[in-house]
Amino acid sequence: METEISDLGEFGLINRLTKDFPITNPQTKTGIGDDAAILSFGERDVVVTTDLLLEGIHFDLRYVPLQHLGYKAAIVNFSDIYAMNATPRQITVSLGISSRFTVEHIETIYAGIRGACEIYGVDLVGGDTSASVTGLVISITCIGDVGKGEEIKRSGAKPTDIICVSGDLGAAFMGLQLLERENAIAAGQKDFQPDFAGKEYILERQLKPEARRDIIELLRKEGIKPTSMIDISDGLSSELLHICKSSEVGCRIYEDKIPIDYQTALMAEEFNMNLVTAAMNGGEDYELLFTVPLTAHEKIEKLKGITMIGYITKPELGAALVTRDGQEITIRAQGWNAFREDNVSELSS
Ligand code: ADP
Ligand code: MG
């Protein structure tokens, strides 16, 4: 009998497809299962990650400017490299282009990619270009490097470690809600001008995210080495569960500690959405989620832009969110699952 892909889900599918690929080269230190693979060739290790963006699934060109699209496509890869505590160095860019795009359109995407490369010091070293029957496809592979033993994986969290997150959460998701609403209104009217005043931050978080190189540098400067780390592409819930699963631990995080920007809160109220749900499951924040030993508490407390949201527990205790009134709610991944039909147009990764 044939199996529906939606029965397995994204991660179930990846596991099933890749389970019969043993690692045979001594240079392959870490294969599938982290933000990037780690390869060992010389004095430093090489990290590799790749991301695929499809028009209609990951982006909607009715409201995403092409230059922003190029920028974001590069940034999401850099973010995965930083999440390994590594530095992005090179990218390759592969494109599938349908006939409705002009040379100038593609140049505009490349202007965005170039901007990201300049800011993060990354070289474009290759790619592939093809015609596409429907829509635009962008696939970027990023290569980075990290000192031996400096890499940080999802698997190193230990009970009593403190769980930290950079920046704030849920803003990119609320930005997307706003863009979709304004786009729907615009479709019915001529000369419609969306009103984005006072909503610049959430729009920027959706359209022009940054990778948290600054946080990696700050932690290094302060002599703090996280025990585990992941970037938040699919939502805090989903990423926390990845750390818990890889590290074989549980966790408690506190609702009132989750960092949320004022504009995000206002927008959630306007949409009558649960703010914590948006912050836990929204995704596309590209912040770093990491754990540090309890001994780093004092140092972390003083750092701007990093919030302690909870702690790691023994695995038996499971993963839970502690609400403001002290109730424990089991954390479930409601992040992006491309193969669940109700999710297809809702979130992207
Ligand atoms: P991220 O969200 O950090 O980009 P993903 O959730 O996309 O990571 O992927 C999880 C892991 O599975 C990664 O190690 C990735 O390289 C691997 N992976 C994803 N898709 C495939 C595939 N089709 N074949 C082999 N490995 C894959
Ligand atoms: Mg990642």
Description:
There is one protein chain. With 349 residues, this protein is an alpha+beta fold. Helices cover 33% and strands 24% of the residues. The chain is built from 10 helices and 13 strands. The protein has helices at residues 5-18, 66-82, 103-120, 171-187, 200-207, 213-221, 236-247, 262-270, 275-281, 297-301, and strands at residues 28-30, 37-40, 44-54, 87-97, 123-131, 137-147, 162-166, 228-231, 250-254, 288-292, 306-313, 319-322, 328-330. The strands form 2 sheets. The protein has a 7-stranded mixed β-sheet with strand order 8-10-7-11-9-12-13, with helices on both faces. Strands 1-2-3-6-4-5 form a 6-stranded mixed β-sheet, covered by helices on one side. Helix 4 packs across helix 5 (200-207) and helix 4 packs across helix 8. The chain is globular. The chain starts with a helix and ends in a 19-residue tail after the last strand.
Question: What is the structure about, briefly put?
Answer:
The chain is of the alpha+beta class.
SSE topology sketch:
Layout: H1 5-18, E1 28-30, E2 37-40, E3 44-54, H2 66-82, E4 87-97, H3 103-120, E5 123-131, E6 137-147, E7 162-166, H4 171-187, H5 200-207, H6 213-221, E8 228-231, H7 236-247, E9 250-254, H8 262-270, H9 275-281, E10 288-292, H10 297-301, E11 306-313, E12 319-322, E13 328-330
Bound molecules: adenosine-5'-diphosphate and magnesium ion.
Give the biggest sheet: 7 strands, mixed
Strand content: 15-25%
Identify the overall geometry: globular
Order of helices and strands: HEEEHEHEEEHHHEHEHHEHEEE
| Mean pLDDT figure | 93
Please tell me how large the radius of gyration is.
20 Å
Helix content: 25-40%
Number of helices: 10
Strand order of the largest sheet: 8-10-7-11-9-12-13
Which residues form runs of ≥5 with pLDDT under 50?
Answer: 341-349
Total strands: the figure is 13
Q: State the secondary-structure class.
A: alpha+beta
In angstroms, what separates the terminal alpha carbons?
A: 31 Å
What hetero molecules are in the model?
Answer: adenosine-5'-diphosphate, magnesium ion
